Amino acid sequence: MNPLLIAIDAKFIHTNNAVRLLKANSAFDVDIAEFTIKDSLTKIVDTIKAKNPLFVGFSTYIWNVEIVRKLIKKVKEECSLPVVLGGPEVSYEPFHFLETTEADLVVKGEGEHVFDDVILHFLEGKDLTETSNIATKTPSRINTPIEEIQDLSNLKLPHFFKSDLANLPHKIQYLETSRGCPYRCSYCLSSLEKTVRHFDIKPLKDAISHLLDNGATTFKFLDRTFNVSKHALPIIDFIVQAHTPGSVFQFEMTGDTLNEELINHIHATAPKNLFRFEIGIQSTNEITNRLVNRFQDNARLFRIIRKIQENGVIDLHLDLIAGLPKENLARFKRTFNEVFALGAKELQLGFLKFLRGTKIRKEASRYQYKFQSHAPYEILESEDLSAEDIRRMKRVETALELFHNKGYFGDTLYTIFKGHYVEYFTLFERIYQRYTERNLPLKGYQLHTLYAFIEQFLREEGVMQDRLDELKHTYLSKHKVKPKCYFEKIEDKKLKHHLFTNLHSRTDIPVHTFFKHAIVTPYKKRYLVALYQNHEAQLFKA
Fold first, then answer.
1. 346-351 and 370-371 as β-strands: parallel, antiparallel, unpaired?
2. What global pTM score does this model have?
3. 352-397: per-residue pLDDT in tens?
4. Fold classified for 4-143
5. Residue ranges of the domains in the chain?
6. CATH assignment of 157-355, given 3.40.50.300, 1.20.210.10, 3.40.50.150, 3.80.30.20?
7. Sheet of 536-541, strands arranged across
8. Which of 48-77 are b and which e, b meaning 16 or more Cβ less than 10 Å from the residue's Cβ?
């Protein structure tokens, strides 16, 4: 009878490091089972029954807590097993979960250094009153303080299980060079951690090499602020040397403290698109930032972002949070417009969440916040934003995802927007309104539908045909086989023969190949020929 740790991920591509770290650092045999939020409760409970474990441990987050609640009930009814909860969702209000579910024990904060005591508690009845990071309701109430692991060099990394090898090419690999955050943003759980601590670099390099050697391509570092890590430059250099074709490494950075020498070094040594920086801007309103304990030099931040953008080596993902104190709709529009104009590949518009344990949750009444009573505890309204304001922001978020963040249009649509608009928030609001007025699908759409809509929208907005033709070029280049066209195609055989003959003289590609595999369309007072062979597009201006 081994302990069984259950991970319930938001998507299959995610990898739960928490349960793997506990298993890797335990002196006991520990089983893990990983699911997604789409898996049925019956499937999960059947797995638990088949394992017949010593106890069941759930790794608990805002995206799976409601499922975990239901599972606790079923586990108690059908298996009569002890239940242990861990993870950020339960760490700071443990007795809420002990009193509203039938869970037996909560591990608060980091668990690697106390997990074996928990196992011994269920194996031999070990007293946990001297073990940190523990909360229990029965038989006697225990609530020991959270103690952080000061020496992370003692931890074994979670990346070497043979059972994970087959899925490495298909999943995101999460890595840590440090734990803790030097900043105290009042909406973030990392603000509750006391110190920044670092892992040894050699095991990290060994883990990256192992993952790359076994086909992993997508890596995300969990450091809350990677650029404060003492390992930032050595890890960057190691990745530049060790990476494999198509691999991508993502880091969370604090933009206004980014060292320009580090950026210059990456620009000089790294290939394009190897690195992806996620920078949380959240708001450009200085008053708002101070109220949530953020101190941000906007001028330097914007200069750093422009420097990154100008070189085109590093992909940029920027974050905003709607609903922060004293940022009403008009002021948030200004934040949105300023940040969208920077031209990042992705701009995530998130909404303020009142996570258990955070200062902003405790201060909610100060700003007349109303938020969801269930996870993810998202803002509903405040003294600064009405429910209708939030709905308008949600519409902009939807249009932003479809017509920018998904990458369907490359840089083309952004370039067109930048040439014609400065009020980007209003632009995306109008896009959403016209798109839904035409009863076009928000899910299950086809690419040609999005392109046809946006071309018509921009034409109605007065955008010239030459600019709209740039969309054709992007659309045709996005496909590997002949696509369905949303625009006029040239069918005149004499004209096509003339164009193809000319192209044959330039490329040696036979005329009959063009006739069989090419699309021809008017393009900027000339013609654009898109040839599809061997799952590849070749575009020619003719």
1. unpaired
2. 0.94
3. 999 999 999 999 999 999 999 999 999 999 999 999 999 999 999 9
4. Rossmann fold (3.40.50)
5. 4-143, 157-355, 479-541
6. 3.80.30.20
7. 518-523, 526-533, 536-541
8. beebebbbbbbbbbbbbbebbbebbeebbe
